[in-house]
Amino acid sequence: MKLYMNPLSPNVRRVRLTAAVLGLELEEKQLDFTRGEHKSPEYLALNPNGAVPTLVDGDLVLTESRAIMQYLASKKPESGLLPRDEKSRAEVTRWQFWDASHFASQLGTLVFERMIKPMFGMGEPDQRKIEDAISGCRRFGAVLDTHLAGKQYIVGSSLTIADLTIACSLMYAKQTEAPVGDFPNIQSWFSRVSDLDAWKNTSPQFATA
Ligand SMILES: N[C@@H](CCC(=O)N[C@@H](CS)C(=O)NCC(=O)O)C(=O)O
What we know:
Bound molecules: glutathione
Radius of gyration: 17 Å
Oligomer: single chain
């Protein structure tokens, strides 16, 4: 399986982390964003969004990090990363959608405004967008923190791709000063996930999470 990727991307890390937990080998093709390789005609033919990740497995070309996670986890059902029973599986999907719809975008705005813009000389951070994202992080962080009370993992009693999905959204939380440090249940759950060897092995060098 071939993965078109850039190691700095939280969306890519979801896929690499899932593969690492499952012990699946991926042939990685890194795209250089500064040279616009993710917008080349060849790459746009695979992923018309011009974004990473894209997985190619035989004649399957799959985009969307969370869909790729489900696909990889389905290859090893015994891992429990995507539970076999319908209710738990639906819960996992629900938290992946929750992340995509509500949480990841708030954290992503902070990453863009506070990390990417200064890194690539893309102008001043937009304070209004930062304030909106901070308030969104607090609102949805409270939802996750309440859900995690008394729990080790987001769904059931073991690690699933729901945990891997949301942990990746938080991978730059420290560097971007996302307001999640005051949520004790998120903090202890996040340190559990970030203790995994697979987490450490998929960390871009400067990510301290
Ligand atoms: N919903 C997509 C989002 C993919 C995405 O936006 N990736 C970013 C990197 S984190 C990207 O490639 N951005 C480049 C661009 O959109 O031009 C997923 O989950 O895979």
